[in-house]
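Reply to dn_fold:

You asked what the input looked like. This is it:
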Amino acid sequence: MVQKGSVIVFCGPTAVGKSAFGLYIAKKHNGEIISADSMQIYRGMDIGTAKPSLQEQKEIKHHLIDILDVNDEYSAEQYKDDADNAISDVLSRGKLPIIVGGTGFYIKALLYEHNFGNAKKDEKIRQKYQNILETNGKDYLYDILKGKDFESSQKIHPNDVKKVIRALEIFEVSGNKKSELIQSEQHCRYDFKIYFLNMERQILYERINNRVDDMIRNGLIEEVKQLIKNGADINGQAMQGIGYKETVDYINGKTSKDEMIDLIKQHTRNYAKRQITYFKGMKSVKWIDVHSTMSDIVL
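and this is what came back:
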């Protein structure tokens, strides 16, 4: 049985069925869902993020969905604080907090103590890289990060220059890579159980391809057009998400519709592969094959 004050986490690659399973567990165990999805936090981004329907959100209370405008920036640190508040709220009402999502660095920030935020700040170093950015551009700056801390560069988008500069600052100030300072699994912030939902790779890829087709049929292109009409920054953090960036390129005439669809499918499959790799690095995760071993989940 789950101990009082504990949380359950269901993570996994995109399209594996996390949302549906989280909903099922929440109904069965008097729980509420706390999203750990870096795209579902944005209002107006519903189709491309496979956001739970309004009916599903009505059946079970969901937290940390639709909390930001599309041009707002957000970090794992902010997520940790918001998720802490949501967990406290759920527990205060005698319910089970169920974390559901595939954004690994959000989940890791929530579950484990970390120290990368404690690296000292140095305004001179920050200004140096700001000058490099203004003189040579964001791609040049990003290449510097790749050379100094390749692992961190793979988790930061080139357009997110604040995080790029912060990672470079950490490297110079501490002498360590940001990726080497991230959370230690020795110090847990919660009593938790974490499950990774997985399935045979080819089946997962077929589900991804079908989901993308559904998104197009359900109006992804129209959703992106509306976001742009409402003032979304196409170079901002949110609009660089998979499905949105490719659709913007199509709208701007850079690709055909078929090319856009193929690119979304390809990039989503690549992302799913990265998610699997990321969670393989977490020792506390119990892997569950959703087609054969779901009965192994004992709450």
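Residues 234 and 240 are 7 Å apart (CA to CA).
Hope that clears it up.
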